[in-house]
Amino acid sequence: MTADTFRFFREDLCNRCGNCFAACPYLELPQEKAKQEINNLIEQGVSLALEVCNTCHTCDAACPNGADPYELVLERWSVRNEKGLPATARLVMPSEPCNIWSSLKAIMPPDELALLGAWDDFSPCEEICLTGFYTSAVPYILKAKVLEGLPKLVGSEALFGCAGDIYKTGRFDMVEQIARRLERLFSEMGIKKVICSMSAEGMVLSEILPRRFGAKFNFEVEALDVWLLRRLQDEKIALTRDLGMTVTVHDNCLSKMQEGRLQEVNREIIRRTGCRIVEPRHARERALCCGFGAAAARFRIMDIISSGYRRLKELEDTGADAAVIYCPACLFILSLIKEFAGSTMPFYHPVELVEMAAGGEPLRRHERRAWDMAALISNHLLKYAAFPSYRRPFQPAYIPPELTPLPDLPAGDRRRTRALAALYHSLLVQNKAVRSLVSLTFKRAAAAYDAKRRRRLGLRDHSVTGTAPDGVVGPVNGTGESDRV
Description:
mainly alpha, 2 domains, 8 strands
């Protein structure tokens, strides 16, 4: 790839000022070094950014000219990944038998399996709530009574998360295939409006696929966050009590698009439940990744662990009573990190806060789902260690425009995943001594890996203490004293 053949990066708008990499919370480069790195990435296709990028979108938010430097990283990864994806990418590919969703279904309780079965309905309908890739990993959230006004719930891993994860790998050929599948499906259904339970997928449908891949969708896209706030503003949801908590907020990667509108939407929802907001050191357009996006560079699980642990420590260092995480993917990844680190900070989805403020009791299964995730990741690691063929890079299967059956979880993987889940949920693991040992080992391993990696790359140590530089907090009373969105 030469400098004049970029597909998405706007080199004509880039003045190589380095603001993108100076703002990056992972590179944290001085301005002159940042200028050198962006120049190297454009001209030579090499940069530290290709090794440390967490796909957090801060560089795009920081670019003064809208040149889309994050897409430059993706285009360089695209070349790297043409020959195949690393083995760990199998976890996020529904066309691979041992993906997250198939594995979780082997250990989900019956009520959640019933939800997933009901959602897998693509019969004609003008308005739907798209349940989303990772909402399917935490489906109990959508059982909240405050969501009873939603339209028909529809979703399946066969939609590949609307290509959000795959876009992060730079495999644009697969994104094109998924876009064609979505065009065909939504057209056949006669969809006029899609409410996305996962706002990140809403951004993919409304921004990335139409703008970058020419997807033609004849429907309106709205995030569940916006729908929920409007219901609160119109008093269709009656809040009967103030929760009175101090909370911190984790912003997901794609919330940085559209000038961060969804970030303020969620803060307004939180304020209306009577919670006070204290921001972490990296917030809003500078927010750190939950850790999941850290895998995009090399698909190493230790990158997820070290990056996620750094984010957890920032949330804890605010001194907040709890953290609010409005992306389902971030919620289950950070829940996994929290459990292994032995953190006692509660996590809430905004829907859960509203349910509580409305006098209800949400189904809170985040901790249990975290250990379920640990079981399926452990099965992946066992296969990686035992079967050399599983370690090799693989070419994902072609995704045709029509919906096709996905592979079943192999019987051996089902047995191992169930056995591991039973072990992790048992008193053999869920006791104070073992949990303390797990926590100590996890924290030391994460810190050592991160420090060694940063030394190897020549990056300075980062500090994760303190709150946001401007000390931003939300009002204690969330019933309308702040400006509405």
